[in-house]
Amino acid sequence: MRMVDIIAKKRDGETLATKEIEDFVRAYTADQIPDYQASAFAMAIYFQGMDEQESAALTKAMAASGDQLDLSRISGTKVDKHSTGGVGDKTTFILSPIVAAAGVPVAKLSGRGLGHTGGTIDKLEAFPGFKTELDEDTFIELVNKHKIAIAGQSGNLTPADKKLYALRDVTATVNAMPLIASSIMSKKIAAGSDAIVLDVKVGSGAFMTDLPAAKELAQTMVNIGNELGKRTVAVISDMDQPLGRMVGNTLEVKEVIDVLRGNGPEDIRRLSVRLAAHMLVLGGKAKDVEAGEALANDLIRDGSALNVFRDFIAHQGADPALVDEPEQLVKSDYSVTVKAPAAGYVSSINATDIGRAASMLGAGRMTKADTIDHAVGVEMKAKVGDWVKEGEALVDLHANRDDVEEVVNLVKESYQIGGSAPEERPLIFHEMI
């Protein structure tokens, strides 16, 4: 069938055959379909949507468009985790050693950040010498021996998604739910795990700002995963303020170590344990989520998770002593305190603005060519619901320059302070099992 016929079929609300979707992905990846036809196709999907089988077919075809990791040589049930992204989200580093300590293999491919703050790989590189470029044999050997490895994504992972995403970005079709879901899930399918836990963020610092949209995305991805034979669960969690108290690469690593020592902010600890619990259930180590939470907490309490994290850092080339002495990690030259303009309750914090502030300091990239400054970031001294006095610290900015007035002003604008305590917002809104 000609591409124009496929476009017309979807435009008119008809269901596409799997072969038609596969033909489109194959031809578009090979530059045999012009961008203007792919744009028309994306717009047709934006307005007409896709059913479960169409979405699964699109996901599978995009996963097959490039490299696919074969994890069959790793014994046990491989469980992956994906977050739709947020500010201060460092759950991967907390839950991965917990799950590995329980014997569930964690074979994770992660990316670098583009936008608010650094990505998973950027944060790991806060440990000098940490190796993120691993060949497949080394990656699999590390997981088989030690139950955990995290590596950078292959340059040829889901090339169809890379092409289509770039096109969607300039054709106002980014928000097409089947295209969002298939973009995320194609990378998870290509990464080769047996089961997937999704952390779908909702709020001012998330891609999905309202709960109905977050639920729709979560359900679509769960349906795709299950349709493709991957047991998939989703947790919808709050991102209406930064998660934890640290935003910035080394700052977040220090907070991870704090949580694995049994301390740290309650929100990041609780969410990490809940996500780990779902992974433990899928990995066959817990009968239900409550038992999984109990096991995860035990593995933190007895030091097992911290031991795994320390060994993980060592096995991928960095100095494990830094886990015990995180104060030796790189520090910024300056610390600037942003103070409350008036007394009252912190009623809201715009999480995106806090992420932008960290990025302006150098913690994130605006272009792929930008260099990350691992030392800088934002330390949250007051969060939503806290009472602050006039002149009390709202945040500390960790900077490597002293001209941060623009960042200070942005942080001030991100905070709203009122006379009454705000209604408490759930940390976890919904779970799809």
From TrEMBL:
Reactions catalysed, as given in the entry: 2'-deoxyuridine + phosphate = 2-deoxy-alpha-D-ribose 1-phosphate + uracil; uridine + phosphate = alpha-D-ribose 1-phosphate + uracil; thymidine + phosphate = 2-deoxy-alpha-D-ribose 1-phosphate + thymine
One GO biological process term: pyrimidine nucleobase metabolic process
One GO MF term attached to the UniProt entry: deoxyuridine phosphorylase activity
UniProt keyword list: Glycosyltransferase, Transferase
EC assignment: 2.4.2.2
This protein's GO CC annotations: cytosol
Domain Pyrimidine nucleoside phosphorylase C-terminal: 345-418
Cofactor: K(+)
Domain of life: Bacteria
InterPro entries noted in UniProt: Glycosyl_Trfase_fam3, Glycosyl_Trfase_fam3_N_dom, Glycosyl_Trfase_fam3_N_dom_sf, Nuc_phospho_transferase, PYNP-like_C_sf, PYNP_C, Pyrmidine_PPas_bac/euk, Pyrmidine_PPase_CS
SMART domains in alphabetical order: PYNP_C
Matches recorded under SUPFAM superfamilies: Nucleoside phosphorylase/phosphoribosyltransferase catalytic domain, Nucleoside phosphorylase/phosphoribosyltransferase N-terminal domain, Pyrimidine nucleoside phosphorylase C-terminal domain
Functional description taken from the UniProt entry: Catalyzes phosphorolysis of the pyrimidine nucleosides uridine, thymidine and 2'-deoxyuridine with the formation of the corresponding pyrimidine base and ribose-1-phosphate.
Family that this chain belongs to: Belongs to the thymidine/pyrimidine-nucleoside phosphorylase family.
Subunit annotation: Homodimer.
Protein name: Pyrimidine-nucleoside phosphorylase
Organism of derivation: Salicibibacter kimchii
